[in-house]
């Protein structure tokens, strides 16, 4: 869907673009106009972690923009449900990834390289990728997970539903996500359930289940597994935070904490 079409959710006249100003009309003085573009770019997966953090901080203080984001996410979900998707053959995926890495190893798949004019090669690659709904690349997911964890720690909304009862936390996600994340009570194993929240990776909502081990918080990000992620578990350390991932039941799990790696691995084993 085009950017202009997505911006017309509140039009009074169906079919007429909100951005089309009549002759002689004043330009909008809405202070959030620029943020509207960032919100749409975030949903399209075009922003980096720093820009995503800017959007999240603004949404915490602007109900109107938060409502716009909710509308756009709902629209995006309806489009995904109504549109048939076809998995890219592995050779095509690998060829496209390799071509992009050679052309611009540190740029996002989506935005900056194309806007600077990549020519017919870039257009062809974009056309191929437009056939598929993509999560962030597997090799960049740790960056997103670490950024989301830090953003949560710095936010006043680290926990949106506070409860040690999985029967309270799990139903809270109903209607807020297009999938049902598993929630487990691991108190007897030494990992106390403290609540949950929503987070967003490029164009894809994620459940976040929050646990506590002594003074250490553990964020468990849960989202549907895509084809590229299957059987590709990851573990490591970034910015002082340990992380690891696994797949189960069609879901991908990313656990991250400043807890030591051995205890984080124990948490993973108990949850699985």
Automatic annotation (TrEMBL):
Q: What superkingdom heads the lineage?
A: Bacteria
Q: Which InterPro entries match?
A: Anti_sigma_zinc_sf, Znf_put
Q: Which residues form the Putative zinc-finger domain?
A: 32-66
Please name one Pfam family that this protein belongs to. Answer: zf-HC2
Its recorded name reads Anti-sigma factor
Q: Which organism is it from?
A: Methylobacterium terricola
């Amino acid at each position: 869907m085009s950017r202009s079409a997505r911006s017309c959710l509140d039009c009074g006249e169906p079919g007429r673009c909100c951005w089309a100003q009549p002759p002689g009309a004043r330009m909008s003085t809405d202070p959030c106009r620029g943020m509207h573009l960032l919100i749409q770019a975030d949903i399209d997966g075009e922003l980096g972690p720093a820009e995503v953090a800017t959007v999240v901080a603004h949404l915490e203080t602007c109900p109107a923009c938060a409502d716009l984001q909710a509308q756009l996410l709902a629209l995006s979900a309806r489009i995904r449900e109504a549109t048939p998707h076809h998995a890219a053959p592995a050779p095509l995926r690998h060829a496209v990834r390799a071509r992009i890495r050679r052309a611009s190893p540190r740029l996002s798949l989506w935005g900056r390289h194309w806007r600077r004019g990549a020519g017919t090669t870039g257009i062809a690659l974009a056309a191929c990728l437009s056939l598929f709904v993509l999560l962030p690349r597997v090799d960049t997911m740790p960056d997103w997970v670490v950024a989301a964890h830090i953003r949560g720690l710095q936010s006043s909304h680290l926990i949106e539903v506070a409860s040690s009862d999985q029967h309270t936390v799990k139903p809270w996600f109903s209607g807020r996500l297009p999938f049902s994340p598993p929630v487990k009570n691991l108190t007897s194993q030494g990992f106390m359930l403290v609540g949950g929240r929503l987070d967003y990776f490029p164009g894809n909502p994620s459940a976040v289940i929050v646990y506590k081990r002594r003074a250490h918080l553990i964020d468990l990000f849960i989202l549907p597994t895509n084809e590229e992620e299957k059987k590709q578990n990851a573990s490591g350390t970034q910015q002082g935070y340990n992380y690891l991932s696994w797949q189960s039941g069609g879901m991908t799990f990313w656990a991250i904490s400043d807890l030591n790696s051995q205890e984080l691995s124990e948490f993973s084993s108990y949850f699985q």
